[in-house]
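Reopening this ticket.

The earlier resolution said the output was attached, but the attachment link was broken on my side. Pasting everything inline this time so it's all in one place.
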Amino acid sequence: MSKPKSKDAPMPIGDCITQLHKCLRERLCHGQLPSRLEASEAQHKHLLGLLTRTAIHGESNSVLIVGPRGSGKTALLKCVLRDLLQEKEVQKNLLQVQLNGLLQTDDRIALKEITRQLNLENVVGDKVFGSFAENLVFLLEALKKGDHSTTCPVLFVLDEFDLFAHHKNQTLLYNLLDVSQSAQAPVAVVGLTCRLDVLELLEKRVKSRFSHRQIHLLSSLSFTQYLERVRSQLSLPDDFPERKFAQDWNSSVQSFCEEKSVEDILRRHFNSSKDFRSLHMLLMLCLSRISIVNPTIKPADVLEASRLCFSDAKSNMLHGLSVLELCLVIAMKHLNDVYEGEPFNFQMVHNEFKMFLQRKSNSMYNFEQPVVMKAFEHLQQLELIRPIDGSSAKTQREYQLMKLTLDNCQIMEALQKYPQCPTDIKQWGMSAFG
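Inline output:
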């Protein structure tokens, strides 16, 4: 009869690995917010003050958070809202509406989303409104409390703010900013954008209603801070269930970050992009290689993860082409070499392919023209070739001028890695001219 396990018995390595994956995936995938944003404390204080005045004192405001992708615009706003919602009065009253320019592509969709997020579908019912402004005012009126003297403050967050400037007459922006300026209801409008010239996109009437407050976030991250971020993101917390495993893991992470080869790879990523999202993607790929057989993170893991991050999407696409499509790409490569990058048409590519077939003793690749045309069209669908600007749509398909969007290096690499590529086709691809 087996003895019952002691409470102090170490956790099996398999369970430790499972807990490790759970802990780090939560951190890397769900974007846990830091306790404080050291790089943007001043901006945090400024934004928190603005939103506090709206949520507690009923003062309307509008502000833009501007910065490149990955500079922490969304993280800043989330940290401010987390701190703001610690006030009980704010928790009860503040309503939030999150809009995104990529999703709410016109005012009708935006208004429907505002109605949904404010839970006012039943209030609106079958009512018909003459204008967007009337509808928005009605929605805000519906938020008034029982005594009809005060209205719940509403925070409107407009992600990809610049895309709302492309809506017809900028009606949504005009009415939101108009409400925020006219004190009809306590409203805060916060826009997030990467475009430094965003104010130039606004119409005069919209610009006049905007407060012109801007919070700029510019990444001043050093490589030392970037490296420290890698270490902190991979380290296990003190409350990890198996203390000994966590200590060994954190020690291996420390050694890993001090490796010269790892530092070189991370510096390449740092120089390419300081965006934490791309760093988290790299670390997730490293984490996916951790298993019972490979329980610690090694330089080989980050090397493979880096290779996947920097892999060329178009080169990878070539590995999935049929032999006929690969032959057409090689024919286009030869035409590019001979005619020094001049555009080509299907007929020229087909003739080049037929010349290759004539030099062969067997007719293994002797396809009918409609089949070759179908393969050519598939390459266009994959955007490996594209019609040149100004090429007439009325021109017969066989004579429409095209350009190859691949360079010779990508084609050569694909030929080397193409699964079971026939030798004669590889030799044709590698030859200087067709």
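Reporter confirms the inline version is readable. Residues 1-6 have pLDDT under 50 and may be disordered. Residues 103 and 168 are 16 Å apart (CA to CA).
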